[in-house]
Amino acid sequence: MTDGNTSQITNTHYSGGFQYTEDHLDFFPHAEGYVNVIDYSAFHYVYTYKDHLGNIRLKYTLDPDTNETAILEENHYYPYGLTHQGYNADHKFFIAINEIIELVEVTSIMDDKYKYKFNGMEWQDELDLNHYDFGARNYDPALGRWMNIDPLADDSKQIDVSPYVYTTNNPIRFTDPTGMKWEDPVEAKKLQKNIENRRDKQQNDINRIQNKIDNKNLSEKAIARKQKRLDNKQGRVDEMDKSIEDIDLLDKSEHTFRLVGGGELNRVTQGDDGVINIQGSSDAIHIHEIRHVSLSLSSEEGMQFSNESGYLKTTQGIGLLDEMEGYKAQYAFRPGSLPFSVKNINEFNPSGRNRVLMTRNIGSLNHKGKPVYKEINKLHKQYEANGTYKRL
């Protein structure tokens, strides 16, 4: 970048959230903001407050002089990203003066290295560009338009929209951090390919079993056993086709999705950056959670998230039928991944008896001594108390 005051060229280096000016570390991220670094000896925690779109509205820290909380910067944004002017203009940053760390006002010759603002993206003011760096594209908040063509400009859902339009002209509801439906399209395609491979394997098994039924002199009992296996495999094939349709449905939505690995709990949440996080420890779990997203997208209310937990809301009542759908998709891909025993995919059909048995399977699941599904657990306890299970 070029210093507008001295015309001096400096290099900024980025490494997984760690940001350097030349060989000096300026800051690195923590869960609620970033750590400001001065001469590799002074580390100061800065906390950021973000709104539902990931806009950084407030930065605050502990003033090393007064030992009290101090606001470093406060910003309020118009829908397309320009900042309100004329109030809350104070902007401070850390600096070492005679080896004493102080908070000082930003000036034309002393600037804050941390420039992440609208949608959590970096403000690029070198050479008076005044653009936001969204990674693959640059964005001009004065125009509300990209400076580069949308990478999905030829997508069927966007064919009638200018390739320079930001969030289909709805910046209050949507963000567009990568320009892609999936933050990492390679991961999404890999998951879809894995589903197709397992589906094709099951289809080959179906063909082999059917060939034995048709061409071998088997007893009625043997034919019945093979037919039962064939029906289960066919049900899994049909369900995996549905999982592929789920991914296609997410591709057609207005949202951006991120596949997140690991974590103790599997869930769907919306990040501060507006991206929908689909968290799971395996492909089977991701397929389960994607089914929940698909059900939400297809519902009248659309995707909604709980104010209390931040998790994706259920589409039907206490969520039993939602979870039966999720576990059914998971079983179809890998039966052994379920946390309870299921012998046949038909056990997920929402008939009266199956629904009651699934209430026991799902409602009895616990994590660290607490029920995973609180409302379903209540129904499970009710069924235990009134003898519903015993009457099956």
- Biggest β-sheet description: 7 strands, antiparallel
The termini sit apart by 72 Å
- Going across the biggest sheet, name each strand in turn: 1-2-3-4-5-6-7
What are the low-pLDDT stretches, counting only 5+ consecutive residues below 50?
none
How helical, in percent, are the residues?
Answer: 25-40%
Radius of gyration over all CA atoms, rounded: 27 Å
Shape: elongated
Number of strands: 18
Helix-strand makeup class: alpha+beta
Order of helices and strands: EEEEEEEEEEEEEHHEEEHHHEEH
Q: Helical stretch count?
A: 6
Mean pLDDT metric: 89
Share of residues in strands: 15-25%
Tally of discrete structural domains = 2
Structural summary, described in words:
- With 392 residues, the chain is an alpha+beta fold.
- The chain has two domains: 1-179, no CATH class; 185-350, no CATH class.
- Helices cover 30% and strands 21% of the residues.
- The chain has six helices and 18 strands.
- The chain has helices spanning 185-215, 220-251, 283-298, 320-333, 352-363, 374-386, and strands at residues 12-15, 18-21, 24-30, 33-38, 42-50, 56-62, 69-74, 92-97, 100-105, 122-124, 131-133, 138-140, 145-146, 257-260, 267-270, 276-279, 366-367, 370-371.
- It has a seven-stranded antiparallel sheet with strand order 1-2-3-4-5-6-7, with no helix packed on it. It has a four-stranded antiparallel sheet with strand order 10-11-12-13, with no helix packed on it.
- β4 and β5 form a beta hairpin.
- α2 packs across α4 (320-333) and α3 (283-298) crosses α4 (320-333).
- The longest helix is centred in the middle third of the chain and has 32 residues, at 220-251.
- The chain is elongated, with a radius of gyration of 27 Å.
- The relative contact order is 0.06.
